[in-house]
Amino acid sequence: MPLKVFVAGGTGVLGRASLPALIAAGHNVRSTARGKDKAELVGRMGAEPVVCDVYDRASLRKVIAGCDAVIRLTTKISSMAKIRDPKVWAETNHLRTEGARILVDAAISEGVPTYIHESVTFLYGDGGTRWLTEDSHSDDAGSEIVRAALAGEQEAARFSATGGKGIVLRFAGFYGADAPSTLEMIAMARRRLLFQIGSGENYFSSIYVSDAGRAVAAALAAPAGIFNVCDDQPVLFAEYLRALAAAAAAKKPLHMPAFLGPMMFGHVWRYFSRSQRVSNAKLKRASHWAPAVKSALEGWPLVAAELRSHDATPRAA
After folding, report:
1. What would the pLDDT profile of 25-69 be if each residue is shown by its tens digit?
2. What is the distance between the alpha carbons of residues 90 and 96, in angstroms, rounded to a whole number?
């Protein structure tokens, strides 16, 4: 049955993948869009652009009135060059906490039946070779990023507690030809600035952006709860980096000792160094979703092919 869906953050990386997936599923979609260019982008994707202040409850109530579902995809992740600075995470943390609280307040006030909340799999602790499920322990010690992610998830739980259906989607690492972080990593690989630090024997879970967008649409049919969104076959981080370098037509990443990790990436190093073999089985059972791209070893060649089709072929370093 077609639903009336409001998306906060429809022009971001995940939003640009989710809007077409929602529309292809037959839903009527409206999305936030700041400025003429973003409004035109939303329109080209087949959705209705709306202007509102995501931190203003009254403004949000106007645009979500009559909606069957509200989806929060609002983040603002900085470039890799600045990622080690805790200050650049402040706005994303605020969107995940205060922004989510205000959006949930508005959705409860308007009687919206379903709320979907974007979160991340990076909050899991090191699992070694074990599969990590939604019940696996989180690692929130000393990390404002993880604490904000977990606090944001509580807003979905609060929504469910009022009688609605609150759904949390924990996404693994995004990559795709449309993702600025992917283009930045390819540029770094070509300049030999993307290093393998340590053994690289830790598992890394990822998700092709188009598969992530389809998961958002599929989650509308899932019950309340937390669901991991990742591919079927997490790979060792060393394998991930080699596949990335091959997509960039670059040499293999240089190998550096593990003790340099914190020096180069600061507090974010913990997310690259821990082993996270994340399972997507729960979402596959609860919906008709399954990733088309089964692992990054399949996905990175697709990125390279798409870039070539756009006359943006990576060249050897």
Report:
1. 999 999 999 889 999 999 999 999 999 999 999 999 999 999 999
2. 10
Instruction: Give the residue from 32, 49, 28, 51 showing the smallest Cα distance to 40.
Output: 49
Read off the pLDDT of residues 86-114 as tens digits, 9 standing for 90 and up: 666 677 888 889 999 999 999 999 999 99
Taken as a whole, the chain contains a residue count of 317
> Phi and psi for 316 in degrees, rounded to 5?
-60, 145
Query: In terms of pTM, does the model score above 0.70?
Result: yes
Domains, the chain, with CATH or none: 4-309 (3.40.50.720)
Mean pLDDT of the chain: 91
Q: Residue 54 corresponds to which amino acid? A: V
Give me the residue label for tokens 């967008």: 213
Q: Beta partners for 203?
A: 236
**Helix or strand holding residue 36 (H, E):** helix 36-44
C-alpha 144/C-alpha 150 separation (Å) is 10
Give CA separation, 25 vs 28, 74, 240, in Å.
Answer: 9, 22, 32
